């Protein structure tokens, strides 16, 4: 009977295979966000504000908001199990009769740096690089549709009838799409369900305590060839006295040469974990 010692290999394979299919939760924070202020010539902006406005301002102008998250920190091949967007109101509600809806944005845009007027709800003259009602990037690139180019399919909605944190849930499909198609990740547009309602103010990414948070839970899947790669990282094994053992990883067998001696004996030529 041949004798092999594979303590290190066994522990490594066990830890790797235990992580296969593990559920991991993480929080992502917006990389850009801005309010769109309705104007006939698209010359008003406010991307530098620490608030996001959704609804109608005091002069009956419509307000929508955009926000985008970088999901590239999630591993390739991750399967998104759940995703939700947390928004925090940062003022006293004047009208809680209409909630907020999210739609996936279909065109690239740039946040800009313009600070709005004191109240924030009316914006200020746009400068180069701002996003406006007509421009995805002022003043060279127009939206295909005034007010922002976003999907007609509702991604999520939430009632906003009290101050505090409000969660737009059910965004797993959108986040999976953004992860799998990074060149089409332009974030979401936020609209009031009834755009005639008074504006709601949410904290933007620069707000002290009310930043938007994208909460994601995903399944991390390690490709099986990587199992072998991780096992072979043990470069401290000497190249002498190598033996071959067979390791089973779910549906496949891998022949792995390892060194002797190790700290634990396995009296089998086929080591199955």
Task: Describe the model.
This protein has 273 residues and is mainly beta. The protein has 2 domains: 4-20 and 222-272, no CATH class; 24-220, no CATH class. Helices cover 11% and strands 40% of the residues. The chain contains 3 helices and 19 strands. It has helices spanning 7-19, 172-180, 224-231; strands spanning 4-5, 22-37, 44-45, 51-56, 62-69, 79-88, 100-105, 124-125, 135-137, 141-142, 150-158, 165-168, 188-192, 200-203, 213-220, 242-249, 252-259, 265-266, 270-272. Strands 2, 4, 5, 6, 7, 11, 12, 13, 14 and 15 form a 10-stranded antiparallel sheet that branches. Strands 17-16-19 form a 3-stranded mixed sheet. A hairpin with a 5-residue loop joins β4 (51-56) and β5 (62-69). α1 (7-19) packs antiparallel against α3. The longest helix has 13 residues, at 7-19. It is globular and about 55 Å long. The two termini are 20 Å apart. The model is unreliable at 1-19 and 230-273 (pLDDT under 50).
